[in-house]
Amino acid sequence: MSKEWKEQLSEEMKKPYFVALMDFVDTAYKNGDVYPLREDLFAAFDATSFDNVRVVIVGQDPYHGDGEAHGLCFSVRNGVKTPPSLRNIFKEITAEYGNTPQSTDLSGWAKQGVLLLNATLTVEKDCAGSHTGRGWETFTDAILQKISDKKENVVFLLWGNYARKKGALIDHNKHLVLESAHPSPLSASRGFFGNNHFTTTNEYLEAHKKKPINWLL
Question: Please, what is the angle between helix 197-207 and helix 84-97, to 10°?
Fold first, then answer.
């Protein structure tokens, strides 16, 4: 994790639950297939510095298929088959902007200040949700709280019931919180499509004299 984020989270990372979590994660990586790869575990924080966070997208846990997860929620590296949720995210961007992003690797968003944060940062191969309840949620909740408390005029995109519950951690008077259904094929037609979150985000950023996000990268 980058020095800047370590400074922000140093006290959190000293807590007993986090020490126990790291022991669990170390053991999991030694004993089996865990995603993302160890070197990508904190990729979201390396790609988006704390000072640069302007937008936060909250996912649940990493993709659990071979070669998919690389530390940024909803993102896969170019050349990997586009997951259904990401395909629907791109459909919504196309509807709002008339063009489709060309890269499934969302690092281009992250470098612009979009923190792509899964609530749980690890998962076992082919076993969705396998590392929930181990402490990651406590850690990532603390990150959301830190961003809410220390920054102003950040846009939080909360898609699906799981992410929407995180809205309670955010000061709605200081930030913009946008909620909708999840982009999964099971729910996208029930409120994700047509949510206009990408254009609304940029309108808010520009209104607060911040550079908009180029979602088409």
Answer: 60
